[in-house]
Amino acid sequence: MAKNSNFHPVILAGGRGTRFWPLSRKKRAKQLLALDGKQTMIQQTAARLLPLAPTVQFWIITNDDLRPAILKQLPRIPKPQILAEPVGRNTAPAIGLAAFILLQQNPDAVLGLFPSDHVIADEARYRATLEQGIAIAAAGPTIVVLGIRPSRAETGYGYIEAGPMNGGALRVRRFTEKPDAAKAAEFVAAGNYFWNSGMFLWSARTLADALREHLPKTAPLLEEIAGCFGTRKFGATFRRLYPKCENISVDYAVLEPRSAKGELASNIFCLPADFRWNDLGSWTALHEHHAAKANPADGNLVAASGTFLLNASRNYVHAPGKFVAAVGVSDLVVVETSDALLITTRQDAQDVGKVVKHLDAKKLHKLV
Amino acid sequence: MAKNSNFHPVILAGGRGTRFWPLSRKKRAKQLLALDGKQTMIQQTAARLLPLAPTVQFWIITNDDLRPAILKQLPRIPKPQILAEPVGRNTAPAIGLAAFILLQQNPDAVLGLFPSDHVIADEARYRATLEQGIAIAAAGPTIVVLGIRPSRAETGYGYIEAGPMNGGALRVRRFTEKPDAAKAAEFVAAGNYFWNSGMFLWSARTLADALREHLPKTAPLLEEIAGCFGTRKFGATFRRLYPKCENISVDYAVLEPRSAKGELASNIFCLPADFRWNDLGSWTALHEHHAAKANPADGNLVAASGTFLLNASRNYVHAPGKFVAAVGVSDLVVVETSDALLITTRQDAQDVGKVVKHLDAKKLHKLV
What we know:
Two copies of one chain form a homodimer. Chain A has about 375 residues and is of the alpha/beta class. The first copy, chain A, has two domains: about 5-280, Alpha-Beta Complex (Spore Coat Polysaccharide Biosynthesis Protein SpsA, Chain A); about 285-350, no CATH class. Chain A has helices spanning about 40-50, 65-75, 90-105, 125-140, 180-190, 205-215, 220-225, 235-240, 250-255, 285-295, 355-360; strands spanning about 5-10, 60-65, 80-85, 110-115, 120, 145-150, 160-165, 170-175, 195-205, 270-275, 275-280, 300-305, 305-310, 315-320, 325, 330-335, 340-345. In chain A, the strands form four sheets. Chain A has a five-stranded mixed barrel with strand order 6-9-7-8-10. In chain A, helix 3 (about 90-105) packs across helix 6 and helix 7 (about 220-225) runs antiparallel to helix 8. The interface between A and B is large, with 42 and 41 residues.
């Protein structure tokens, strides 16, 4: 596998991942945690992509809270390419800015948009899929989205409805936001629906054109910021203009707009991905991910200095350094840090973000 | 209320209280913890009795693990009167040794036997009851046991079946160990059953005579140890002979033996006690005790630096210094210390002693 001199991974690392509180914090967001293995999620994201592009071609878009930690975790990525948004503006302005900067540097640039906090198994297959997608994106004015073959009727994801094969990829018919359980089951049974992985590939030129078309107010602002990249004016211009950009996702801004006939643009393709993928959306998802690997008989996963488990099953406990005794409890999620203790259930773990909302509202800054 | 120069409180403080793990440890047993208020349980026990006797008349029977902490917590009790058993031999040898020592010093001594880890409300009523009992015990060869009027059909306590009134106290007909639920309900309905509080009053002479009669092998050993009290030989004699004493409770050795007719000795009396009493037998009992005082609407009691409770009810959480978030959980008991984390339920909290058994068996000395 050769590194591709035109491929530029753009890693999005501005999220907070509040569902992993109390481990995740404003300055130590989910992507900076080693939730799966020794490397952090963002380190794994970068390492996975490194066989496809040298580090000088990597870009990271984050914020001021997280940038210092990212600089430490990924010291080989050029510092100016680790951009801290002055304010969060969702994915369209983020990837758009990268596209306009890269277009100045390399008219043949192909961008890949990658979340920084997902788990991917089968890395060789992952990279083979990406290489295929990069080739498609480089060949024409095409947008490629990686679609994950659904393994269950998940209601927490967006779905892609794909049409017939077209040159190695499937034509995208429709994007559908999080469906209800019945719809999700229907999608999975239909066979031509895929989970939207949040991973996209396109040439800088295609993306720039799409942004000029669909975000005519925002695109010129991004071009002006991009024009200052590498100069002294960049920081001030970024801070001044970026907040004026529309707060919108690339899916919504570029992929989903329909023609007057109600049809999607014909140049959006879904590349079916057969590698195992997990977005680790909650403590429960992390529990299931680890349990699938370790497969403990009682379903308990306990990070501790020692354990005593009696009539305890399917619990996830994170209390490293402590002896944990669990007696007569099941389906609990308990996470302990030096200043906080979370006690919830596998079912309620998706509501952990509400704790952070409360802490934000109460201005308990040290705890968020 | 005047101090009584013949009344000698003997506080038993050799228990481990393993059901309060991880807070209770071998060197920091339940009675040394401030489970209810600012003072520790043993400090409260002593303070409650102080209006009845000066500190020079107090005795404490404990062990080598706990004695250093007790010396610190109760600095005004004469050090030689804080006895560390070389091995635990249950209550009969412990109170017996005190009786034989006191008999040498004061032939009119009245001993009171007091557990060191119970909660008592209505202290004035408690002391008035004791004064009545002390008078009865001083007047004749009588054994007085304080009986608690049962407020529920508790199966975890011993019961006293009382007969007709006899000079201010009830004649004891029978001691019954922990009954099953049906029997317990029957006892409560009957009206003449009381919980055995573990608090006894008797003269040193009566107790000495009873021990000589019922424990003819052990009594001479205790007399020999007592004979050395205040001399250089005491420590060595105590360590040599005490392990040879029978391992038996005072209830079983002295109170329950029956005559050939199957009747209890006629000199055992039950003094009905109307003060509120709680032996705090588990985290759940402590939870209920605190909830009865604080009466929180959702039943949660959380010791923490801050809390966020969402769909959470009837939980007991002890994590001082931490922010505790509980989401979607009920009837849990969670206790955190610097080295351990207990997660159990209100129902299973009585099994916490099993954790300590496991730690003992695994020789995890730092954790017990």
